[in-house]
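Thread: quick sanity check before group meeting

JM: Hey all, I'm pulling together slides for Thursday and realized we never actually wrote out the predicted structure for the chain we discussed last week. Dropping the sequence here so it's in one place. If anyone has concerns about the input, flag it before I start.
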Amino acid sequence: MTGLSELQGNLQDWSEGISGPERPILTHLNADTSWLLQLPWKDAPTGRSRFNCLIDPWFRGVQVDFAPWFSRQWHAIESSVQSVAELNERLFHIERFVRFSGPHSRDELDRHKTYIDAVVISHQFTDHCNKQTLLELDVSTVIFAHRAAASTIRSWNHFTFVKDLPHLSSNSLDWRQFSTHPLPDWLAIFRIVTSLDLASTHSAVVLCFNLNSGGPDGSQSLQSVQAEAVVYTPHGLPAENLQILSKASPTINPLLLIHGMHEVSIGWLGQINLGALNGLRCWQTCGAKYWVPTHDEIKIGKGLINSLLRRNILTLQEALSKQKDKESNSSGDGLVPAELDGLRFRELRSGQCLILA
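JM (edit): ok, ran it. Output follows.
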């Protein structure tokens, strides 16, 4: 399997990627900001090969914020899966392929069980917290959500486990404290927030994991081995807020930054998506190995918000050029900082996946 592969219509390629190197795999499920993160799962009690995290799922239908006259949106590009059931069926077949092609248990899997192990909801807005898609999930699905989103989800009386995402702060720098049941002890999920952002629009969700288990329960590695992290910030956040990751204990090495390229502003609400230049600053601050854009689909919109929406689109090269100009004005040497040389920038279309080697 190559670094990029199509989810739709290439199930065998996707399965072969799963059964290959034991590294995380990221799949873009739509053209906007729905993602699947598949983590190698050693000694899984279910005998499975991957722990599947579904992030901000919205697959089809209209997305309404507050009222239809205020904001309505639809996907302009068809999602690579149209339902939770379709995604779950694909995950079942992947696990079945891996089980019967490698050194795994040959016991038959139950295709009627859920293969989505956790759902992460970053914001309360309905393009992130989409009721139509979420209610397709099994009631036993574990939900980790932004506080306002968690409150909304609980009001549906559908899920048995909905947990507010905790915050990493200067008073709580040990990421292991956020590895709470029913997550495996090598995985933690938490948020990074900014004090002045009252709506929590400009924040990040961090999925932190230690894949180098030193023993059957991973206890040795949790004490001594550095962890990796996916930093997911669909609207962006001020780069300086990511400095806290360098202070975490045990050490966190960011593997992937998921941050959009488009600058989006809405009238009196100001800038909603911080865009490519902010993404570069975030990448420089956290030092992630990869940067994958998100939340850049130009959706079909109606209502008041759509009439006020303004979008500034920068390519990576344009953002780098602007960054270079700023560095030149501040330092006089006209050079892009050397640390940009290590950037692995990957754009994933709907249905594409990336092995995070």
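AS: nice. The helical segments are 11-19, 84-101, 131-134, 147-155, 219-224, 275-286, 304-308, 316-331. DSSP finds eight helices and 20 strands in the chain.
JM: adding both to the slides.
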